[in-house]
Specification:
Layout: E1 4-15, E2 23-32, E3 35-41, H1 45-50, E4 64-70, E5 75-76
Parallel strand pairs: 1-4, 1-5
Antiparallel strand pairs: 1-2, 2-3
């Protein structure tokens, strides 16, 4: 198994385009291996990350790659 790529986009406004047309101010988008796994408020992301560890998915800590980007309030349309 290769490295698990995790990317977190923080501090952004997210237009979800879901059935409720939610707009999340100061939001965060969590992506694993190119797939969106979580859309939530920026303050929730640290709690969610703590619940998933490298060992839980069968990897070593060294292969658990995380990139975090501060979008500085930019607007994003995930999908």
């Amino acid at each position: 198994m290769g490295d698990l790529k995790r990317m977190i986009l923080r501090n952004c406004t997210i237009v979800t385009m879901d059935e409720a047309d939610r707009v999340i101010e100061n939001g965060a988008l969590w992506i694993e291996n190119g797939k969106i796994v979580e859309i939530c408020s920026d303050s929730e992301i640290p709690l969610k990350i703590e619940n998933i560890t490298a060992e839980a998915v069968g990897l070593t800590s060294e292969s658990w790659a995380t990139e975090v980007f501060d979008l500085k309030g930019k607007l994003i349309f995930p999908g």
